Predict the 3D structure of the following.
Amino acid sequence: MPYITYVTPEYYRVTHQGSIIPEEEQEKALRQASRHIDSLTYNRIMGRGFSSLTEFQQEVIREVVCKQADFEYENADQIETILSSYSINGVSAQFGSSWNIFTDKGIAMMRDTYALLSQTGLCCRLAR
């Protein structure tokens, strides 16, 4: 059974009014963002089935997938680097958990986007 993303490219363009990701790359970016959301929610969406979630949960997940796809597309170079920090001639750069970036399971996400995803109740390690 093929993996079905939580957001279609049409939803991204029309409902979310996304314009950051080029049309030919949207499906791939939305698939990756959906898989990252699955990891952060301990595959609870896949386990329950997207259609069995509440309308609120579905809406939040769609919004988070769109935001995450945009974030990952815009920051692909920094996310894909294996370095967490470096310094050259007194100028330093660092990537990892910071005041506005959340990282877990190798996934980087804006903290406010993770806070939004957490509203679904699917991110708690203790939840069933």
Q: What stands out?
A: The longest strand covers residues 85-88. The chain has a mean pLDDT of 89.
